Fold:
Amino acid sequence: MRNGKSLLLAYDQGLEHGPTDFNLNNVNPDYILKIAEKGKYNAIILHHGIAEKYYDKHNATVPLIVKLNGKTNLVKKDPISSQVCSIGRAVKLGAEAVGYTIYPGSEFEHEMFNDFSKLVETAHTYGIPVIAWVYPRGKFVHDEFSTETIAYAARIGYAARIGLELGADFVKINYNNDSEGFKWVVKAAGKAKVLVAGGKKLSDKEVLQRAYEVMKAGASGLAVGRNVWQNEKPLEMIKALKKIIFDNKSVNEALKILK
Ligand code: FBP
Structure:
């Protein structure tokens, strides 16, 4: 984190989506760790299995965030993400923060709320922050990407506010291209800092445009995965994102780096 802002590299998609996101380069966690280190990311997000085999806590220069729960996309019912790693284990692996996904609106939200609340208590006892991925999903959520849903804005909806209510230090949420509405999303998150997920691969300009819009709306940073490590020039994309996040540069200025 620099001046309260951060750029995190998400690499938990192998469990969430299966290997369909990968090619011969980025299927290899060593390739991703190199990108994270060379690009001087603020942290890399891994599941414990990858962290155990690839993250060298004694020599790594990029801080580690361990994702404590996960699910596959094979089960086609309301989502529930199971805890697969304890905080003690994450700390032993070198984690400086932990992450956990909640799906508000799922018929299983009570189970994730319950686990998450206990986890926040334990993490804070260890003195480490918690990032909540808050993705409203399931049969009770009619539009995952409406501003109301992302912010808990009008009368209904969830995400940013739920993260705050449940004790998260950071909430990681999706952006719906509503730049005005996103200011309200950030307000709804209160003292929980807002990190925005990258989503599916977009054009370079689109990635930078959304980075610009969310930072202007008050987000603390981005936790981007595919839009960096699926890019043919990942290090240039990192530099361009940093120009926007940390140096307040325009989209066109940042784009020059990728040309
Ligand atoms: P991306 O930047 O690649 O979208 O990663 C962000 C992330 O939240 C990952 O941490 C997670 O694996 C994935 O998106 C979840 O994707 P989905 O929204 O498809 O469940």
